[in-house]
Input
Amino acid sequence: MIPLSLVKTTALTLMDKAAIEIPEDYLDGLKQAAETEDGDLSSFVLKAMLENYEAAKEDRRAMCGDTGVPRWFVKLGNDAKVEGGMCALETELRRATAEATDSVPLRPNRVHPLWRTDHNNNVGINAPEIEYAFEPEGDWIDLITVHKGGLFGTDYRMLFPSDGIQGIKRFYLDSLMAFGKRGLACQPAIIGIGLGGSKDVCMTLGKRASTLRVVGSRNSDPRIAEMEDEFKELGNSIGMGAMGFVGKNMVIDCNIEVGYCHTGGMPMSVHAFCLSSRRAVARLFPDGRVEYRTDPDWFTPYQRRETVDWTPAREAAE
Output
């Protein structure tokens, strides 16, 4: 059984790491963008951000003044058990969010939508968000925190099957142009696209594609993987670079996730993560071990399963 004390200390460490230490995969992508960028202002922004990341890590300070809205993703092996149960786990994640807001510190961005009530700790009604997934084997839990910008950088459209790939491309480019021209997102960024599902699932898929996949990963469907390569190149061909200035590096990578949808429609969402791609991951084991990493490894074969049944790996090998 995984003790609550381990959940709490690990969650606090993750909050600190996410706010301060930029993931290596994104940092490498940003450095490549800086090497190829020829727009004067875009080059200046990229250089300044890379210097800022080094300073943040050295001084142990948040890499961006706006630390976004912290959220949690929890993945559990089928045999995982947590002391006190899942409600106790959620309580510890909320406590860690509140404490980290003061200790890192994080900007307390969460307020009531109508009364603007602010508890000064990023905790409130339905905040922070905690989402769950499961794996068929294992007694571990993965804790993933993402600090995503909480205002814009997201769009949705109900397309139709007849719109086809060209319709998907049009909406993708429309979204990127709006993000850049209207200052709705901080570029360059990892772009996530959700295709299919119901409207809420479509939005969830796109957001997870942008925040829970690493730069250079590709969808297990080779045809979608080809689209990801094409859309990355397409997004960098519109003449926009860092923070919407003239340039050629707006998209560090493009990730696409799909869900089966109603036969009469083709929902689509587009999400930009952030110029500071804040995420951190740890796997907790019952014996007290904690393994930290930056790849959420969220979209496993089990998460993308298409069939009714699932055969665990150990049974398939027998």
Observations:
- DSSP finds eight helices and nine strands in the chain.
